[in-house]
Amino acid sequence: MKFTKILTVFFALTLIFTGISSEVMAEDLSGREVIQNVYEREEGESREAEMNMVLINKHGDKRVRDLKQFNKDFGDVEKKIMFFTGPQDIRGTSFMNWSYEGNKEDDQWIYLPALGKIKRISSDSKGDYFMGSDFTYDDLGERNIDADNHKLLRTDTLDGEEVYVVESIPKDEDYMYSKTITWVIKDKWIGLKKEFYDRSGEHLKTLKVNEYKKIDGIITVTESEMHNIQKDHKTQLKLDEVKYNSGIDENTFSERQMKMGI
Q1: How many whole angstroms separate alpha carbon 201 and alpha carbon 149?
Q2: Domain interval for residue 94
Q3: Distance between CA 248 and CA 244 in Å, rounded?
Q4: Domain presence at residue 8
Q5: What is the pLDDT of residue 133?
Q6: pLDDT of 101
Q7: Of 106, 105, 88, the residue nearest 97 (C-alpha)
Q8: Three-class SS of residue 190?
Q9: How high is the pLDDT of residue 102?
Q10: What's residue 33's pLDDT?
Q11: Is residue 243 within a helix (H) or strand (E), and if so which, with residue range?
């Protein structure tokens, strides 16, 4: 449950490491065990942060979004909420996600001030893209580890880091992605890169972590980018003012708060 897709994500996640040492590493863990370690990586009881989102089209034109996000782990459910603080035309828009232990599907809601009402995101809509970004609503939730079959393909190096490369194939043949491939940093359990493949098996997009650092003793992804290869469109994310275990009130994660804003 701890594999934050991003937004609160985030998110985000060549290849020259071969030989005997690679074989030894590969024997250490299974693909599922690698992904489970990512899910269970320490992220604190709660976190709040400022987020800057930049949307870049194939012509290089940019649109900038500013957000404030909160997330908190309540044990059997992890709750996340984000509020758009700028620009003016989307200020007040909010999104909330509740992820549950077990096989229960995430609950998601979005509030659009122009409509003056909260919309629940249906299962059929989770493949839609969120606010013009390259993240689907499904990407913003928490995928159950046993929803996929995980296979350790190899060990490797990426950006100077030793990584496990894991292929995850959905058990549901109707899922929006036919597979994902994740490069996970050994011992740090961060997805340094993640490739998404569409239902036809074609490479659709890549999530790449550009910066991570320790904040309050917790490894935190601070800069990442999702690149939609097929549309040549990018979404860059940058976190700032990150605070862990700051005592976020449970009432923050409510439909009432979505309308009130921060």
Answers
A1: 16
A2: 20-260
A3: 10
A4: no
A5: 98
A6: 87
A7: 106
A8: coil
A9: 81
A10: 97
A11: strand 233-244
